[in-house]
Design a protein that fits this description.
mainly alpha, 39% helix
Length: 54
């Protein structure tokens, strides 16, 4: 892995995501400047997408 790539532990696990959605997960890369909020946005989007549909 490149030195400038940092792994962040997700709050929604792959197992939870696959169980809820019934299909395999995929990767979405957020790019931008350091400190721009990419990780914060990615985690928030992941939590919203994991919510049950009303």
């Amino acid at each position: 892995m490149a030195e400038n790539v940092v792994w962040h532990q997700a709050t929604v696990t792959r197992e939870r995501r696959e169980q809820l959605n019934g299909h395999k997960s995929c990767v979405l890369w957020f790019t931008g400047l350091s400190g721009a909020g990419k990780s914060t946005l990615a985690h928030a989007v992941e939590e919203l997408l994991h919510q049950p549909v009303p």
